[in-house]
């Protein structure tokens, strides 16, 4: 969706979205930094009921599918013997049709996570989207470097052998470009 605004108080839908995962992601934009927020839905009885059935039916997730998701997570945990796991949606391909696997796995994991949270009163399963597992790089200007490292040093590592100035050769009639870094480059460990 691309919107990252902290003080949204109301999220208003004229009709529910296609999947539970999409709907929860969209209403999650309300009250990120506020004490209270509202997700409001407005639809017509009859014509728009098919949208409500889609949402409330959770995209067709069955109880046995949620149990099988839990089983895959448990087997992977036992095999790897680690708390933090990176599991591809394709690991669940025996449970869901491959054309809609991402949405179904998201919905199933969300249901499982919320069920475990209500049962055990702590987050037994934490889900992060794929984008969270990419490498992130930042350039820290000298003027804030000490303060930044003091505050976030445990999450970053400095890249070695990074040229502060380099020349990029252009093709065709374009002139060569000189690139100068504004500060040292660090990799962020999310």
From TrEMBL:
<dbReference type="InterPro" id="IPR027417">
    <property type="entry name" value="P-loop_NTPase"/>
</dbReference>
<protein>
    <recommendedName>
        <fullName>Helicase C-terminal domain-containing protein</fullName>
    </recommendedName>
</protein>
């Amino acid at each position: 969706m691309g919107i990252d605004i902290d003080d949204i108080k109301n999220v208003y839908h004229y009709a529910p979205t296609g999947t539970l995962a999409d709907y929860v992601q969209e209403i999650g934009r309300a009250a990120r930094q506020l004490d209270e927020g509202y997700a409001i839905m407005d639809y017509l009885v009859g014509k728009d009921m098919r949208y409500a059935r889609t949402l409330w039916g959770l995209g067709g997730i069955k109880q046995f599918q949620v149990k099988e998701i839990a089983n895959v997570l448990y087997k992977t945990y036992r095999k790897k013997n680690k708390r933090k796991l990176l599991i591809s949606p394709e690991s669940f391909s025996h449970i869901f049709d491959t054309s809609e696997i991402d949405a179904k796995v998201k919905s199933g994991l969300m249901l499982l996570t919320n069920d475990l949270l209500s049962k055990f009163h702590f987050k037994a399963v934490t889900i992060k989207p794929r984008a969270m597992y990419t490498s992130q790089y930042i350039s820290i200007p000298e003027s804030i470097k000490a303060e930044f490292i003091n505050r976030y040093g445990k999450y970053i590592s400095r890249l070695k052998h990074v040229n502060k100035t380099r020349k990029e050769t252009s093709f065709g009639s374009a002139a060569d470009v000189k690139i100068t870094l504004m500060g040292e480059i660090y990799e962020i460990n999310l």
